[in-house]
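Re-run requested by the PI after the first attempt was lost when the workstation crashed. Everything re-entered from the original request form. Ligand of interest: zinc ion.
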Amino acid sequence: MSARIDILSGLGDKGPAAIVVEANVKRILLDAGGALHPGEAITWARGLDVDAVIISHDHVDHIGGVSELPPTLPLYCTPLVAQALPKGRAWQPLPERGTCRIAGIEVTTGQAGHSLGGVWIHLGVEGGIFYSGDACFESQLFPFDTPPPANIALLDASYGTYDQPQQACVDAISEHLNRPLAFPVPESGRALEMALWLAEEADARGLSLAIDPIIRANLKTLLALPATLRRSHSDERIEALLARPDASQPSLKLISDRDDTAAMWPGFHLLHTGYLTPSRCAELSAGDILWQRWNVHLRASHLVELADQINAEHVVPLFTHLSDPALSAWRTLLGARLATEKALFLNNHVLNAIPLNNRSLA
Ligand SMILES: [Zn+2]
């Protein structure tokens, strides 16, 4: 028994996710990431030959490349994630939490704590291959399920070696609330928990607030799911928010991010809380927007905790820089478990990097 892992995209930088796992003469693509930056070409799908694709969640850097794949390629995702597929794209249901077989491989999924309908993926080959997708331990709404043991863990390291607790982020955002603010956020992820927090803060401070209807609709969807798919004690908070009317002239606005720029929101300061594109970095440098992170990915100590939980012998930090000084920091955090190769081969649970001259997919 053997398995091969090819990280087509997502290693060495924050970039589209696309990983091929080959086992039992079948190939499964994990995620089909689209460009994070407008106009950027997707190159990982060129010449690709796989038997199925599994999508972890509905953010563009994980699902946006589906349009590059043959429309007949079997695609698996949860029903909520399927709503973000290109119109008419065929798909098959992936459990929100459970086990199924895809292309002859045992696939286990669980809640990743990051977004509505999002899951991590565990493949039952070679002692377990675990892919976290995007994952977080700190969500107030989305639970994180402890995965089964895995020999190799491909983990969301989007935050690099950053390790600030979520409470510190919330405290920092609180400092800004007494001025007119608009928060552009991805509507299926942190938007939901930011909505609850902002509503409670607005009430406590006597501030006016409006929340994008699509974010309200997603909270309603979350409330309609089985209770085990959201954190306990969140139902009352969600119900209270849904019953709360929007202010007609709010000083705080939570908006679905549609590439908003500061110029689109006169009278408001734009406060971003996630990944900044180069053009937004320029806006930040010019003082046109504000930025304060709201944790939705694994911070460094949680990434190590997850690797420990699943007994991973090898850990690949994804979606982050892997040159020094970051590389040395990862070595300190993960020791001999750190793996940074693009192509990996597992044979009887032993991991080998594939030499450079044999890296193309056969
Ligand atoms: Zn995501």
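Saved to the shared folder this time. The chain has a mean pLDDT of 94.
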